[in-house]
Fold each of these.
Amino acid sequence: MTVNKELMKGSTATLVLTLLARKEMYGYQIIKELEVVSSGLFEMKEGTLYPILHALEQSEAVVATWVGEEGTRQRKYYAITKQGRALLKAKKEEWRNFKETVDKVLQG
Amino acid sequence: MKSSLPINEFIATVVARVSYKDAHNDIARELRSHFEDVQEQLTGVGLDDKAIEAEALRRMGSAEDVGTQLNGVHQPRTDWLLLAAVALLLVGGMFAMQRAGVLAPQLLWLGIGAVVCVGVLTLKPRHLVAAAVPLYLATWGIGLLGFFTGPRVAGQPYLAVGPLHITVVELSVVLFVVGLPGLLHTSRAASSARRAAVLTAALAPLVAYAYLASSAAATIYFVAVATMLLVSAQPRHAVIACSAVGGALLSLAFYRATFAGPAAYQALQQSERHTDFVFHFLQAQSPVLAAAIAIVALCLVVYLIASCSETKNPFSRTLMAGATAVLATGIVVGLASNIGFIPMPLTGINLPFLSNGGSMLVAHMALVAILVGIRRRKTIAFLT
């Protein structure tokens, strides 16, 4: 089973922040981790992750650091910031409210 | 993954969609790193290079879509808060000049400053790095030209360009501070001999300021250099040694300024209400405006200091620290000496954007343009 792309769209940033709240990660690592924790349910086009990461970086929810010397293997690691944790808290709350409301409607 | 043609094409298509060119290098590196990770994962599952490449590209999705989305994110943002604060200070300065009857020449310099700002805003970090050595040498050239051929006012050399008189010593502080980050940046991975040469070059202007007994210029330059050395991640022992030598030269400048005899007295006598004591003058003209100016100026100092840490590019961060140090020292010392916090009258400190003095107004506006440019690309980690 896969999840509708539109359903995932609105929550990808929250999922990414949740993973980054656990540890610093680089782009591909985030994609793989997301697949693992969702048991393969959340499979996304990998290219779509980078605009999300860059948007989080612009809004200072995450900070990015290049690791690795020039000429050697380099990876851009992302770490959640204090603002990022506050944003994640708000997003989780928003998600809980949304889920409860949808559940209520679905259960009739 | 060795960057194959299809992957290079994918990356080129993505970055071509991003209008903000300064972000291209960072995006391309990250995508290339991603493709390398995919290859590492797929190697050993029985696929040949072509199949791995095709799979990596399939997983990535549409290059056009990725590029369009990244373009939406990477829109440079102008720091309107910084510009608004500077604009208010300029209004305060012009008000003081109008009351002092010297508005017209200062407005002319303001116009020149605006043109210079437009030019500075087109510069990118790599231009400033490339211009570091020529700028450093040109600053010495201008200084020596003023010293040997220019008129002297209270012992300080000026450069006469037609009807315009340029204050060589104060202007040199700004020019050296703009040039030094490039020298420090290129010396980071250089031999210890080259690094020592760069650090000597960084301290050399203090010798000139001490010789000229320019305690104000020496103070601002010393604070800026010490800040830039700290920010540019120079070895600790080099920072300590430079600070010690710089501190000794600063003390010498103060010693010579204090015992300069008639020149010091002449400098104090020639201080005008709208130059060295412009804030005091402003207080007398409009206490409310003066209070607002003081609050905005001090908030600007705090804002600029806080902003330095947000800048990721090491060169830009060093330049921002230097420019901030020049403006912040001018504002803090200028305000403090005007309201009597500093017991001795300190002449030669130009209160940025407020004091009379055209060439320094242009220089300080150029520093703001540099800061605005850095703030526009603050999240770009790599030097292009």
Amino acid sequence: MAQAAPTLELPGRRTRRTSPLARREARAFYGFASPWILGFILFGGGPVVAALLLSFAHWSLLSTPSWAGLANYRKMFADPLFYKSIGNTVYFGAGSVVLGVVTSFLLAILLNQKVRGLGFFRTVFYLPSVVAGVATAILWINILQPDSGLINSFLRFFGIKGPGWLVDEHWAIPGLILMSVWGAGNTIVIYLAGLQGISPTLYEAALLDGAGWWDRFWHVTVPMMSPVIFFNVVTSLIASLQAYTLVLVMTEGGPNNATLMLGLYIYRQAFEYFDMGYAAALSWAMFALIGVVTALQFVLARRWVHYDA
Amino acid sequence: MTLTATPPQQAPPTQRRPIGSSQTSVERFRKTITYVLLIAGTAVFVIPFLWMVTTSLKTSQEVLAYPPKVLPATPRFDNYPAAWTSLPFTTFLINSIIITGLSVIGNLVSCVLPAYAFARLRARSRGALFALMVATMAIPAEVTLVPTFIMFSKLNLVNTYWPLFLPAWFGYAFFIFLLRQFFLTIPQELTDAASIDGAGHLRTLWSIFLPMSKPAIAAVAIFSFVGNWNNFLTPLIYLRTQNNFTLALGLSLFKGQYETQYNQMMAVGIISLLPILIVFFLAQRTFVEGVRLSGLGGR
């Protein structure tokens, strides 16, 4: 808080620091915050630095580590699977975020139309995101089965021959995207909260100006919701980059590495090939990728996100 | 579950038109379209679950039948005990309960304390530490995965439960952030009154903050429960002998060993989801409130 009457020479901050009461409060602060501070050293910042150091080393865990210089990074930039995994990660991320954001937003708008049974619908849309795990991954292997699976059986009903989803190189990632949209219902809750926060007077004003439903949607709802959409895009994109654990269960990166995500490739290098140095270098590439994508979104956000006071 | 914050129940008033005006049929049309789309959406979201249930009750022949059958001729409930005993799933269940339980308790203890510090206690480096904590939310788990594994393997803790629950006892930025946002809404006067009464910080936290923050604490507990119960990657990396496996790991082992036994796979899958489903339906409002809290924190 602002210092109302500064004393002669001593700046307010100095006085506060030397007061025994403030010192006791600061000690309490560090005491209470210590679980997180220790956690940051042991499981956060510490490992991040360690990973950076490790990326300049050769180490299989069994031998003694040896200095590698830039060898791991040179290997990375010459590794076709590295580029393939980046491509797959971006493809899956873009597909699942765009489809997920559009679907969830539209469903949230429908739910915001004063419908009966709001609680029921919300439960239905939200539930898949809660149970997402190995069990639902196995469920989706079955649903995406080319012959006896649910989706292709449904398509066959209309005389359409469905693709080979997880077994066809070109359809493996679209299959994973479908599953991810099914599990993206948690964002509906966030959209709904945002929609309910839009002042009705804005819509009334738009109506007075003779705006139709499309104009109201495009010029009121979308701009007012843009910070919420932005939040969901950023968080679901980061989440999609880490969605590889289910891929591990479903396709193990196949067919022909068509679903090899960057995270999965890191896992493979570290825990199947025990090339800890290379895995660390790849993990820093992933860190950089997330950083670049997020920064890019913040730059783009200036063009379309409106923060209303 | 009681909530202090208002759940998102009431929608903003849509434009009311006088009954009998020419617009009502348009309104009615719009309402119909809305429900048709919502019901279609519901079908898309629900059918996979129904498929899971019907598949779990089919015979092995019915699972692979072509064209597929929607319903089994007679429901085969014995798929459930058969699947459950084909691998030591009872052991996996107990392991999951132990690991998840220790993690949830750890998350609560180690997140409530820093959240209180960040919300109420002043120190010179508080702002910087808080910014650092928020920044750590952007660190992908993959970056810390390898060094953390090396650390635990040097401590000879691979194939024990320690690597799976110990990190939960050292704070988790997202939960601390969520709790801190909630703590900030508790009026300062209450804390002042308590400290005049001679209550220390632990007492204040215990007897004022915690009772007033039930929705946020429940949300953290539930998120932690679901996250740990569903966790697959860390058990996969750290657990080696089958007797130590969790349910998620056991399920993937089952999938590897009985590649086409979808009926039994779905049966154990359903059993493994039951605890989450029960918690979800009991504490649904808390879930929704937690998601709202976290989502609006990002605004």
Amino acid sequence: MSTHGKVTGIVSNLVTVTVDGPVAENELCYISVGGNQLLAEVIRVTGDKASVQVFESTRGLKNGDSVEFLGKMLEVTLGPGLLSGIYDGLQNNLTTMTGVFLKRGEYTDPLDRKVLWAFTPLAQPGDKVIAADWLGEVKEGWLPHKIMVPFSFKGEFTVKSVAPAGNYTVDETIAVLTDKDGEDIPVTMVQKWPVKVAVKCYKEKPRPTRIMETGVRVIDTFNPIAEGGTGFIPGPFGCGKTVLQHAIAKQGDADVIVMAACGERANEVVEIFTEFPELVDPHTGRKLMERTTIICNTSNMPVAAREASVYTAMTICEYYRAMGLKCLLLADSTSRWAQALREMSNRMEELPGQDAFPVDLSAIISNFYARAGMVLLNNGQTGAVTFIGQEGRPLLLRPRAEPRRPEALPGRQPDRLLLQIPRVSRDPGIPAGKDPEELG
Amino acid sequence: MATKAYQRTYTQLQAITKATVTLNARGVANDELATVNGKLAQVVKTKGDAVTLQVFSGTEGVPTNAEVSFQGAPPTLRVSDQLSGRFFNAYGHPIDGGPEIEGEEREVGGPSVNPYKRRQPSELIPTGIAGIDLNNTLVSGQKIPFFADPDQPYNRVMADVALRADVDKIILGGMGLTNDDYLFFRHAFESAGALDKIVSFVNTTEEPPVERLLIPDMALAAAEYFAVDKNEKVLVLLTDMTLYADALSIVSNRMDQIPSKDSMPGSLYSDLAKIYEKAVQLPDGGSITIIAVTTLNDGDITHAIPDNTGYITEGQLFLRADPDSGKVIVDPFRSLSRLKQLVQGKKTREDHAQLMNAGVRLYADAQNAKTKLENGFDLSDYDLRCLDYAKEYATRLLSIDVNITVEQMLDTAWEIFAKYFSPAETGIKQVFVDKYWKKD
């Protein structure tokens, strides 16, 4: 039986719930309010009281409202159709939502369940497989999208049957696996994975060896970034961080690009929506949008979902990496993410660290950066997630000093590239972040 | 407030602070309104049966046996065309002696627009001020604050901008206005004969600070009515957002919340974003543009309020006194409109962007020359010309008392360039020089 609870305290989007059974840290729950189900995540447990952060507005919520725990953590849905998707921080499809305004409690399916995908089997009956091994593939745009043994499967399985080549929806069984106890498990094209857990279904994480061309000359020539490397762009607001990231997104040599607009301005995200469908990928001649997934959590969306958005983006990258693809994750910006962490920590009345950030901020960010990297897959192929984040600093402050903001510091430890935009580019009124050769 | 049948009344307060009261009550919804001895209050926290209310007009004279009635609904505003030309207080009640508004009651502080449903802003908002139109062009659907020290005439500039802008409605949200400023706005609107397209929500310094917290939501609820229901172009003026943030910190302080950076509440970023992100270009033609004022303490933009604001808004307009020209100017170095490229050269003349860059770059050269002069170095002929140019450029273009069309600004810029420089020194593309250079 699942655990239930009742709301017993509310401060903004931090809600205290008295529970009648076991709950787990980061477990999800639904709070019922006025016919809506609001998704929330456990962030602290004290005795029989769980503190949950609600991913929606808590207006109208009452003490005594019922809560149902779901017995799982925040998950993303992984399967063909993610590319060219536009999602919010919780992977709701923003394009299929009705109405101009976001409705509270409206959750939309990230994948189109009706589309038929042309499936080609790769595994044979009798093959021994483990999690993330390839069973077959479908063409997603121009990319071979591998259908894998779900990451959550533990141990070795024997392939009992694989569907013949043909058209299938994501929910149809494309393979049956037998576990070591002889039980048959059907596998579809869709799997789920908790976003805050790193996908580790690979053999090893060797040192990156190849350069990832960003297409931005000043980076590729003087400060090249490795495929599977991490980097960050610090700079005050208005110095051109976003312009540089968009340039990298347009020209970067990657199979898959995931852009996480974390707490960004909606009008800047609209710029991506407007521009990207028009742009052509210089490497393949196809539309840029076909290889891009956008995770969009604008600054006015609930703060808890902002925190989730970067994890959602990273998990999608890890999924494509397991197919042997080169992925590039661009997060704009990690300082807004850090602010979200600060806000929740403040709500929970934790003692503040430097600049009121939570004391484990540095550890959280380091862990996150560490999920990037080039990996050697079980079948000997390689895949990579290259991560470039952005950190803001106040305008004109400490112009040439090292980034001293606490949310910028931890980034420096795990990353291997620092793209600092000098303050001087703001001064002569040159639109910053632009190649000087384009001016004049 | 009309008495309703389901109203619940309590008469035993547990705690009183200057801004909040706490009592035991059941079935209370988050964000719900209540009255405390007739004073309007709002639920901000519940913990078990203990409910904390922020009392907007302050708790002076509130006894422990005050009568507390819950209204069962969050703050609302009556909306209809009758709003036009009227002045209201923070609760949406008329302060101009006119009758109450008849119309539909709408919840204020409602949901966000789905970013995917937004349109890219693309309409120029001309202000007549060259420091804005030429160098930091405003676009409908944009949100941008004036950053100014309290002694700068920002309210005057804002009134000028509002009255010159080609919009259907202007909504003024005045927070902590001095009575003099309030009367100034009222006089300016009346004498311009523009009253019928203006709606004002005003909280003056005479009134309790916590009341200010309602102003932005009220103003934006009215703006959404005109922009969404009537497809109108709406300009919202919010002055002064620093005083709004101060009111937030008063409430959180009285609730014993742990202060975050600069003793602001930890949720400052989200609180500000919720307001500013209401700026939108809607798919059906309506738009909300927000121009705000954030007063600075001695130009310090690293303070939490301007710092957080800068990460939300699409640029900032920096006002400062220029001792060389004796004018108040829009600082070309520290100001930025992030959306200017959406209209420059598209809705304005082709040479706009080039002229802007050249003008600001030469002004930067003048700053360098000035530094040389102050340090006792010899000045070159070019330096001297730069200094003269800077004075004329500041007087004729950067000064806030300029009121000319964009076309005139561009012609003026060409004229000043020709007076002091050769075409090569301006670095402007030859095609434009051939076409526009003012020959003697």
